[in-house]
Amino acid sequence: MEKMTIKKFKEESNIEIIESIMKMNNGYVTSKELDNYGIHRMYLNIMWKKGIVENVAPGVYIDASKIEDSYYVFSLSMPNTIYSHMTALYFHGLSIKAPNDKYDITVRKTYNSKHLKNHNVFYVSDDIYKLGLTETETPLGNKVRVYDIERCICDIIRSKNRMDSEHVKYSIREYIKRKDKDLIKLSKYAEKMGIKDEVMNFVEVFYE
What we know:
This protein is α+β, with helices and mostly antiparallel strands. It has 2 domains: 6-67; 72-206, no CATH class. It is 47% helix and 16% strand. The chain has helices at residues 6-24, 31-37, 42-49, 70-77, 85-91, 126-129, 149-158, 165-177, 183-192, 196-206, and strands at 28-30, 53-57, 60-63, 82-83, 104-108, 120-124, 133-137, 143-147. It has a 3-stranded antiparallel sheet with strand order 1-3-2. A 3-stranded mixed sheet has the order 4-5-6. It has a two-stranded antiparallel sheet with strand order 7-8. Strand 7 (133-137) and strand 8 form a beta hairpin. Helix 7 crosses helix 9 (183-192) and helix 9 packs antiparallel against helix 10. The longest helix is centred in the N-terminal third of the chain and has 19 residues, at 6-24. It starts with 5 loop residues before the first helix and ends with a helix. 30% of the residues are buried.
């Protein structure tokens, strides 16, 4: 039996660790995670050459046997973004259609990236950036950062001139039907965002 070299042993051991990380992450691993574990990023390249993983975004890899979740991949590659408006409402079951490759996302006013140019970007001040921030699952079961329903309703009313009016009406009607709607929270969010009268008047029109 051929003796395993230290180099070969280290390579296989690190690959096993990376595979364990991917199992915990539903098939995903990032270069940053390896830095946290003290594992050199070159092992991802070794795994890519062996066909074990696929590189789906800068610094983001997926088990080659898994189906890529584009929503999750985007959130991993752009951690300073939050799914908002109609994209978030889609995750909450309140959008008339699923987004394609163009997402509604919110970032801080001071944030900028060339990777945002193909998306609908909404810039907000720090005081409301985390207002209503939560997590939900994509259709493929991965958790992503989104705004909760009440924040999204405020957002689409606030940005209605950038939204399809029929989509806005649909989402508000569906929100009103929800048993878990929280009109008190909606009012508080709207007040914090400086649009309380507009939001309350808009919702009242659709309230049966």
